[in-house]
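A.,

Following up on our hallway conversation. Structure tokens first:
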């Protein structure tokens, strides 16, 4: 009987044991509430703290289209809420493309149009 069968290992791929420490990271995708937005950056709410000065991928979705941009975390502030704690994360966009800037302009214009009072006739 083969050694692998005796241990009950049903893996089909070869695995290597790591001797010592080998660090890795795991990134997750999470929808974050947008607090404010400008051409240069944004303020978002997060349930987990984010390290300042790290660069993260950001995806904007608006009007059926999406645009991706890299954003550098500039500041993180914790805020107590009834549900626990949340973090306000300020990001600066890193070299946003013309498409990203146009997307932001459309998002801001749509929000301003929503806030504009209806004039009475």
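Then the amino acids I'd put at each of the 121 positions:
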């Amino acid at each position: 009987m083969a050694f692998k069968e005796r241990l009950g290992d049903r893996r089909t791929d070869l695995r290597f044991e790591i001797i010592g420490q080998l660090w890795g990271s795991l990134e997750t995708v999470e929808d974050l509430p947008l607090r404010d937005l400008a051409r240069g950056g944004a303020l978002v709410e997060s349930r987990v703290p984010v390290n300042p000065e790290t660069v993260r991928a950001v995806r904007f979705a608006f009007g059926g289209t999406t645009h991706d941009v890299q954003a550098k975390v500039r500041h993180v502030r914790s805020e107590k809420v009834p549900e626990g704690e949340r973090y306000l994360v300020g990001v600066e966009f890193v070299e946003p493309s013309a498409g990203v800037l146009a997307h932001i302009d459309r998002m801001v214009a749509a929000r301003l149009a929503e806030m504009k009072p209806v004039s009475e006739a």
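The chain has two helices and five strands. Curious whether your intuition agrees with the design.

B.
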